[in-house]
Amino acid sequence: MRLHKLFFAIFFLFVFHQTFAQRNYDGYNFFGIQGGVTFFDIQTDDLVTKQQTGFVGGFTTRGAFRNNFDLVYGLSFQSASVGVEGNSFLGTDKQNIGYTIQGAQINFLGSYNIVVKHLSIEFGPVFDINGKMKLENEKYEDYVLTGYETLTAKDIQDISRFNVRLAGGITAGLEHFRIIAQYQYGVTNMLGKLNDKGLENEDFKGNSSTIVVAGVIYF
User: Fold this and answer.
1) What is the value of pTM for the model shown?
2) Which of 39, 58, 90, 153 has its Cα between 20 and 30 A from that of 184?
3) CATH of the domain spanning 3-218
4) Nearest of 106, 111, 101 to residue 81 by alpha carbon
């Protein structure tokens, strides 16, 4: 991931926040720092996967928009993990092979307040820019993945770098501290880039599935 893209995203976030804050001078606008854990998996018929735990942290803003609605937008950095089943060449050592995906995430969410400043439901798009699905331990790189004869663990690392998700969840707590529980489903094929690699499977399909549990401190 190129640093200048991240700097641009951060700059855009803060400029938009200042503009939005001035527009809503009669309401409220909060800037927040958030962090938490993720439970990530890939929904696919082409690999045998297992959900694993990662982490997320970043910045968020929340501002009154109209009636009982807020707007929430933010930039987060995340490290997601997932397991893919494979076996040694001789078939004597079946393993849940770990991969890590690191990247940045920009979200634009609408928020409906059940109790203003304390309880809300949120929904909207999330945009991911991520790196490769990197093997956590290179000693498994030549393990053959379950369901295949020649496809190895190292072959599936170069996944799509840009993905779109839809998010929905709930935020609850105090005015300046809340807990977030959110589900994100990937609407784009995160394995699509593998289909032009000349691999044993030329029709990979996979959608990300992520549960996020985080805390946010608002200022």
Assistant:
1) 0.88
2) 153
3) 2.40.160.20
4) 101
